[in-house]
Amino acid sequence: MAASPALLSLTPAISRHSHLLFSRLPSPRHLRLAPPAATPTTPSPGGGPSSGLGVFLSPRALSQLDELAAFRYEHAFPHGLLTVRALSRGPEDDAVAEALVRLLASSFSETVRWAPAQRYAQLLTFVIRRYLHDRRGLAPHAAVLVGFYRPADAAGATGDEGGEDGEGEGEDEGEMACTAEVSFNAVGAPGAPPTPTPPLDFPYICNMTVKTAFRRRGLGKQLLKACEDLVIKMDAKRRVYLHCRIIDQVPFNMYRKAGYNIVQTDSILVWLSLQKRKYLMNKELPQASDASESSTKDFDDNILTY
Description:
three-stranded antiparallel β-sheet; disordered C terminus; five-stranded antiparallel β-sheet; alpha+beta; disordered N terminus; 7 helices
């Protein structure tokens, strides 16, 4: 979903590439890099204040926090193992968050031609770091998913050694390979969603990207499946939305094969804001009782090169 930034909603000064919200896999597609305007009250895991006004989480919200913490999605490829989990709100994931900032900044910078690469990357790093900080605080209304990849030989070695060499960021899990963001309701929805505007009270997937070295191995579609699985586990509404730029044919084909349909197409007038036209797409996910029957068996890893 991310071969080049998709819906990057930063600030008016730099939101020329509206795709870090994602569409193609190799680089971000719909990354809404715009800190939410009027940031909603951020609940804290223990029910105490986080930033701004404090709130007490309901029993359901506390249960959802536990669901997020326990969430794991794994897919074994012939070439290795992908493990996807949610980025936590606690300091134990600060190193992972910083690596994620670098991944997203690098993905956005790949398609930028109108500014010095180094200066632009520095600006993106600053904005993305702040954005991730805000989004991590919105759990359980939104989640940032991180995918770790371990080659088949390394995965086997780790199983034999018990993971004793796990030092540093994500080393025991593998190398960070991809990321995506999911909002589950209006509270977790981005403050400045790209056009066509999705309904804020429905789940929305954005900011999907796969690290350059791991592209064209099938990780993208598994990351999409992980997002859908999490929506079901969080008991959110079953209609999921995402954006895809019209020019991003490969991601578009992937979304279509995964069951997403076009809901609306950007007006040609978006060109006036120096943005690429996008499709708003959605998909109806199965009910919880049917979720176990849902799989990616219809995907062909040799055809879909995400």
